[in-house]
Design brief:
Blueprint: E1 32-34, E2 41-47, E3 57-64, E4 77-84, E5 89-90, E6 96-99, E7 105-110, E8 116-126, E9 129-139
Antiparallel strand pairs: 1-2, 2-3, 3-7, 4-5, 4-8, 6-7, 8-9
């Protein structure tokens, strides 16, 4: 099974992609969300936490059906699109994603090179079902 990590300089956030306007965006930080279709429950944990400014950090991502929080999908793929919607660009680094033996995803080599709001759109694909959830992170401490 292939793992896919997509990082683009384009803004693909559903609320702002067409207009470029971020005024109505809910910038609430969450670490666990249900995808837009309600099929998947996605969560992440950064290391270090809080995420430092202009220093590499890693993340651990999990996806499951939400009914049993202890069981992750072993046959799902994860794609990430990490951008600064207010600036219309992504990160300057290309992180590496690896699946672990539990079905989670280790993401290393991320770096927030600017202070402000970052959007991490996580897209989960399992069979024919593809759904996304967008996480917002304000950068950064330090």
């Amino acid at each position: 099974m292939s793992l896919l990590l997509l990082l683009t300089a384009c803004n693909h956030h559903a609320d702002t992609a067409d207009s470029g306007d971020t005024a109505d965006t809910d910038w609430t930080e969450e670490v666990a969300l249900t995808t837009e279709g309600g099929t998947y429950y996605v969560m992440y944990s950064p290391t270090p936490d809080p995420i430092p400014f202009n220093e590499p950090f890693s993340m651990y991502w999990m996806a499951h059906d939400g009914a049993d929080h202890g069981v992750m999908f072993e046959d799902a793929d994860l794609a990430l699109d990490i951008t600064m919607p207010e600036h219309g660009h992504g990160m300057n680094t290309v992180p590496t994603v690896t699946r672990d033996e539990m079905g989670g995803f280790d993401v290393t080599g991320s770096l927030f090179h600017m202070r402000g709001w970052w959007a991490m759109q996580a897209t989960v694909t399992r069979g024919d079902v593809v759904e996304s959830a967008t996480f917002y992170v304000e950068c950064c401490e330090g």
